[in-house]
Amino acid sequence: MTRPTLLRLWVFTLFAFAALMAWDATGGDLFLARMAGSHLGFALRENPFMVHVMHEGARNLSWALVVLLFVAIRWPFGVLRRLDTASRVQLALTVLGSVIAVSMIKHASHTSCPWDLQEFGGVARYVSHWSWGVSDGGPGGCFPAGHASAAFAYLGGYFVLRRASARAATIWLWTAMAAGLILGVAQQLRGAHYMSHTLWTGWVCWTVGLVIDTAVARFGSRGTATAVPAHAGP
């Protein structure tokens, strides 16, 4: 089975963008938020498992993996041995770049979290995150979902790994997607984010990875050759 071309991946990315715009138009964000919260707030907001494991623990694990990817540039392991140094650099920078991109958008966002809304015991009113420059009366800084980027940031690894192993790239992709959705749903149950925030985070991280891979394909060596056999030692 041949791997998708960059053109096909860009077409898919644009279709995903259109699908996310359609989701925003349905008003599904508030519907799902109301399933998890009430005028008393969100029951799971301070749940120990949600806070210490799904939030803090997952975030710390993600940063540990980022450090490990940078270490693997010099000392690769597993399937990373099948990538050349430039590809391993691309992988590490793609993950870090995805986190930074989401963080920058959040910093400029006027959208507040569900738990900040008046109907959930807060002070803000609901305003679409597409209403740029319009304050909802809350603290803002909640779009897209920063916590989900702890997993979605790794989506870009698919573009690098598919050069060495289609199977490894597919497993990497689905693992990152599943982990990102799990973290996003956990935050939604706490009232920290809307579903669209999680979905847009996935799209942003995927697109960052695709942009970087496209630039590498256009301007640099993609390192398609296997640098070290999979069975080789360190």
Which terms would index this structure?
234 residues; mainly alpha; 8 helices; globular; disordered C terminus
SSE layout and pairing:
Blueprint: H1 6-26, H2 28-36, E1 37-38, E2 41-42, H3 48-74, H4 85-108, H5 149-152, H6 157-161, H7 166-190, H8 195-219
Antiparallel strand pairs: 1-2
Helix pairs in contact: 1-8, 3-4, 3-7, 4-8, 7-8
Count of helical regions: 8
User: Spans of 5+ residues with little confidence (pLDDT < 50)?
Assistant: 222-234
Distance between the termini: 30 Å
Structural class: mainly alpha
Number of strands: 2
Largest sheet: number of strands, sense, barrel closure = 2 strands, antiparallel
Can you give the mean pLDDT?
A: 91
Q: Sketch the topology as an H/E string, one letter per element.
A: HHEEHHHHHH
**Strand adjacency order, main sheet:** 1-2
Helix content: 55-70%
Shape: globular
> What is the radius of gyration computed over CA atoms, rounded to a whole number of angstroms?
19 Å
Q: Assess the beta-strand content as a share of residues.
A: under 5%
